[in-house]
Every structure is written in structure tokens, then in C-alpha cells.
């Protein structure tokens, strides 16, 4: 089958893509920015890529006419606090218009479980998108899921952060709300199982694991599965806004996502039936099994995708290519270079920077800077990195965004997503003479920006000086 995969850069899309190829399908990835498609060369050669922004009016015939099916995996919950529902509705309408020029037979939409008359804004938006998609000229299959548990999922990473960083928690009363988690492996099984299955046409199905827990029980069960204890005290006085700030500072989530998640956590999310399990003969994994599977992927460095690599986890709202040309005028620089004898080893150290590896010099200073950034509303250092030594253009890397990761050209270019009075780039490059170049570039925003740069020049002297020496000469730091 010829399949259109929207949201191909997202957490679910990245998991689904290789499996669809393995099943023998021809996949067309619809992305806003082709350079953001973080896939290996082997996968890239097997797919077709089309740049489409579904927030804009569609162009005729931008897609091949002979598309058989499509996955609608687009959402905007992390992109906005106030108008994400309007963005999602616009996206759905434009999707309908775009595929109207094709011979598409089926659209598969991953939504959220809606079994309450009073819905959160997030779930109300998902239901609205579902209603809009039902207006399209195709057979719609809707899968409604609760919280998804898997390595790199936002739900799992928040649970992990809370439990492993706070053995004792004072929590708001929403932790007593019931929910029904589902393993990411089961979500993918359901998504692929309904493809081309006429029994699932023009119908909506709840998908969930076998366990129904309160969020408090979910936190306790996680600690139990990982071999430690945690204590949770529930209080009635935390407002949604205070709860959101609490999640934002303790976990790696963005404030926008935290606020929308807290709003949804007040609503009970439990599957109403098991029809799809019976149709596809799928037996979902338990919550504990989902945790075990997630950690096997983490321990083997096999995490395929992470919500943190989404653009909306940082400050980008548009095409990253507009930042890829490092400015030469009106900027302040810290440029260093060293002759190296082992370019391959140095390149591997560059490709392993950040995350658990750290920044090769003054890691405690980087952590302080990350904490200050978090206090000022930035992303901080908690995003880390998805893989210990593999980087793709568009990935998040602590409080940086990868603008260019070209191992063949021996060049890594990062753009700062921390809160700054200006714009900052950090570049590592090894030239043909085996000279390592490390360049920090800052374009200040007025006097405030210049004062900021000169105030941290003494720190740059030690940090950047030590960093290039350690990258060039040390195997372990």
C-alpha cells in the first residue's frame, strides 16, 4: 500500500515508520521541514518526503493521487497554552482538503479517550478533530488512547523524573484521578492492525492496557518496579497553575505541555470497551511490563524517538534553516582551535557531547546555567539527548537545538534554546588539516545583550578553553 504518514517526526511517527517499511508499504512522510526528518540513510532511501504545513491552505496535487491510506498523527498541545485547539482544528480541515485530491480510502487517527461529559481542553480538542476528520471523503478509523508508556514518551519521562528525583512528593488532588495506561508497543500494534481492515472503517475504538490506576498508584507502581520506595502526600490547595509550575521545574517537560497535561489529569480516562482487542486479537501488556520494556530500550541505547526532540519542546516555531547560516557581522565570538592527531576519536567525542556525557569541562557550571535558565522560563538541561552518540539535525541537546549534524563533513552546529538577550550558536568542526575549530557566536539584542556577553567572558575563558582541550585530547572525562 502507498501510505501517507503525517507527524513523521513525532514520537509515534518515528516508531511507526520503520515498521510500515518492514511490512512492505511505500511510505510518504509529510513534514513541515524536510531537514527535520531524523532517520538513518537506509530508511531515507526507502521513503518519499513531501513538505506540507497543514496550518496553511493546501496546494492542489501536492500529494500523489494513488495514496491508499494515511495516518493523522498531528497535534499542537505542546505548541500553545491558549489556542492549540484552534491550531488542531485548522490542521484537520486542511488535511481533509489536501487528501481530497487523492484516491485515499482510509485515514487512521490517534486520539485520546473521551468518556466524560466535561472534558479538558486537550481532550475536547481531540474530539473536535475527530469530528472534522469524519467529514472527509474517506473511511476514518479512530484509536483513542490514554497515557502512553514507553521510552521517550512524555508521560513516561514525567513519571520517571518525578519518581527518581522526588522520593517524597506533596501532590495536588488530581493524582487521585483514575487512568488506564497503554504500552507504546501495543499502540503501534493497534495502529498497524487497523490498516486496511474494513471492520474498523468509520468507527472509533478505545485502546488501553489491562490496568486501571490512579496517578498516585502509577507513581507508586513505577517506584516498586524500579526497586525503591516513594511517599506521596496529597493536598487540596494546589491550583492548576501551581501544579503546572511544579511539573515544569521538577521534570523535563515544557511549561506549555505541563499546563495542558494538568488540565487533562483532572479528567478520568478509562477505556469503555475492548472491541478492537477482540477484532485484532491483541492482548495488551500490563503497566509493569510496559515499564520493563521501556527500560530495556533505554539500557540498550535503542530509544527510537523522544518527545523532547519535538520542536515545541524548545523555542522553535518555524523552519530551522533560517538559523543555519551563522551571522558574521554584528556578533561577538569566542573562537578556539587545536591541532589534533586522532580526528576519528575527536569526532566521536563531539558526537557524544551533552546529556549523560556532559560538556567535557565545568559540568557543574553548565548545570548552574541550566538551572538559571529553568528559573527564567527556559528549557534548562533536563531534556538531555535521545541517544548517547547519535545525533540528527533538529534533535534537542540539553538547552541546544541541533541545526546541522554532518559527520561526513565533520561539522556539528548547535543553536541555543535557553533564554538569552540575543541568539547564540556553538559550532564544532574538523578541517582537512586535522584542526579542531570550536566557535561560540552570539548576536546580542541591544545593550542588554552586550552586557550579558561581557559579564560571562571570564567563564567562557575557562569553560570553552577546557572544553576544546578535553575534546581534543581525552577519551574519558
Explain this structure.
Helices cover 35% and strands 20% of the residues. By secondary structure, the protein is α/β, with parallel strands linked by helices. It has a domain of 141 residues: Alpha-D-Glucose-1,6-Bisphosphate, Chain A, domain 4 (2-Layer Sandwich). It contains 15 helices and 19 strands.
SSE diagram, text form:
Elements: E1 2-6, H1 11-22, E2 26-31, H2 41-44, E3 48-51, E4 69-72, H3 84-99, E5 106-112, H4 121-134, E6 139-145, E7 148-149, H5 154-165, E8 168-171, E9 178-179, E10 182-183, H6 184-193, E11 203-207, E12 213-214, H7 215-225, E13 231-234, H8 240-250, H9 255-265, H10 275-280, H11 287-299, E14 332-339, H12 343-350, H13 363-375, E15 396-397, E16 400-406, E17 411-416, E18 422-430, E19 435-444, H14 446-455, H15 457-473
Parallel strand pairs: 1-2, 1-4, 2-3, 4-5, 5-6, 6-11, 7-10, 8-13
Antiparallel strand pairs: 9-12, 14-19, 15-16, 16-17, 17-18, 18-19
Domain NAD(P)-binding: 7-149
Keywords: Membrane, Transmembrane, Transmembrane helix
Pfam families: DUF2867, NAD_binding_10
